[in-house]
Records
---
Amino acid sequence: MNARAVSLQRPDDFDGWRQAARRLLADGVQPGETIWHGGDDATADLFGVENDGNATSGGISYPSPRVPPSFIQLAETAALHRDHGRFSLLYRLLWRLQAEPALIEDQADEDVRRLHGLARTVRRDIHKMRAFVRFRRVEADDGERFVAWFEPEHHILRANAQFFVNRFAAMAWDILTPQGSLHWDGEALCEGPPASRAEAPAGDAAEDLWRRYYASTFNPARLKLSAMLKEMPRRYWHNMPETALIPGLVAGARGREAAMVAEGADAFAGPRPASLGEIAEGIATCRRCPIGCHGTRAVAGEGRADAGLMIVGEQPGDMEEQAGRPFVGPAGQLLRSHLASAGIDTGAAWLTNAVKHFKYAQSGGKRRLHQNPSAREIDMCRWWVESERQLVRPRLVLALGASAARAMLGRTVSVQQMRGRPIPLDDGAMLWITTHPSYLLRLGEAGRVAEEQRFAADLRAVASAG
């Protein structure tokens, strides 16, 4: 028996695939008896029987097969992948779902895993296009236009069209790609043929302004090169004017970060506080950074003044600010529970935060949403937490999260790389770094179990060191 070949009109022709799949399913054609051509195939199969994927046989209307909505959503996205076998995979899953309705929930199934993988890659490519398209202004016969060149990995051009129409509705623009082009005149969207990079402008006057803005907002204290390259792969750099600055900015990041730390220390003139009470009084009136000017109450540390363990969090939260005590909110309660399980007595420790005021953004009504302090704000407040450490003189310091680690070390480090092992400090104390308990609260059920086990192991290591 010859295989039934289905040729779709375009590489992203999901609707054509659905129509053809319904007909094949109704005719009882098994997945192994079909050959799919998605419009991007280099050659057609010489032994298959050609069959127009958008036609119906004899005017018959074929019923839609029953499938979970989640399959349709995943399939529509995965169909945009450049993998030549994507449509065969979709039909094979469609066929199997008729006998196994719950199949799509089985993450251990090879076909289901592959479907999720294709969809995940396509979603990433869609996001990259939205993030990295750079328009350049040109003067055309019909007036001012903005032209961008982009090279998508997958067949996402049409899928992204409405996003750019909505976002840049007020200007006339063209997006040129090797797969095709989009043209918007402010009223109607048109598709065009594939383009070459030579058809796109090389730059415009506005790019100098954009580069100056990018350089001024580049924060060396938040630099994580591996994370930056993951979010902004080098393959996109040649289309983005700001990326020419990145090597120089990265090279000078360590020096700029040291200057920021020194600037924070220089903001405090005079001798350090002589007692923990003086620190509590000082932070109550401190206005050296914007967080202290929000009108919130500073939260001082608490515990034993001669504690052998000092526990440092990021900043007080909403409940801590209202109560005037550290670690009393949901994250603090989770921390106290884990500390007790590890055999650490919080009554014998000193509890404090790297930043003494609550940084937040006002949401609807009276709700206050936590915001992470900036590196500059951590460095400004570092003088206070260093003063606490000099007075308490703990043998061990437990830093919860990246902000607390920066307050102790004066630089940003990777929590995941540094956690679970002792780090000597300049006064002979040993620093241990782990995640902040609020991170555990943000995780889903599956991920939280594993992370809580790592968190508990870190605390047990600290307890053993004490």
Note: Residues 110-132 form the longest helix (23 residues).
---
Amino acid sequence: MRVSVGLLLFGAVASPLMAQQDVQIQTVAAAPGIHMLVGSGGNIGVSSGPDGVFVIDDQYAPLTYKIVVAIRRFSTEPIRFVVNTHWHGDHVGGNENMGELGALIVAHDNVRGRMSVKQVMEALGRTVPASPKGALPVVTFSETTTFHLNGDELYVFHVPHAHTDGDAIIHFRRGNVVHMGDTFFNGAYPFIDLGSGGSIDGMIHAADAVLARIDGETKIIPGHGALGTRADLKAYRDVLAIARDRVTDAIAKGMTLEQAKAAKLMAEYDEAWGQAFINPNQFVEFVYRSLRAQ
């Protein structure tokens, strides 16, 4: 296995941090030359081939060494690009490290904008400081961009006001794989970051946009959860739409947020969908506040 001198130096510096990490990076094959890496935080997508390595999201900074070692198990080519699906730390935390290893960081315009200044995530009770210059995307786009490498067309497109206001979805057109970032939580209620411009309608529209361009053989890398299929995404989309419709009806009936939570509007879905990061009450609150803000 070949690892660059820069990476070895980084590993030496990072080793005390890594000793505190029990996280192991798991590699899941999505298609020939396309992998999903699972560790701590958002799932990573990787395209590898003769033109180099293309990475989607990079989790947390202390995990960079382990992530690169995992990539080196199937490719010794340089990591040329990192595309961020949105600005949250479990997806962009390794940006600075990846940049130092030579990768060009790419994201939607709003991702750079949000990373450049302090952000307050009220729903999670977190204040996120501005990122250092080395972590910021170097190339940004407003609507779409396309990468031509490793025999594929990697079409990157923005979906407005979904999980955040800077979400990007990446479609491997020839590989028949899609990375949806946190617009897709496979088998679980999603976190909708209303403070960053997210909305329930945008989440549904993002799912619809992907469903319209894939088939039954497509593999979908979610922001969180197992590698998915079109059927998984359709089931997720339907749960979101049901929640929107039921909360819309509750608002029309004059229910307060607390009354909507108490009504257990999604009771038959809560056991299956509400046991991960976001619980049923949180999910109803996201949907309620999103609809009230319209």
Note: Confidence is low (pLDDT under 50) at residues 1-20.
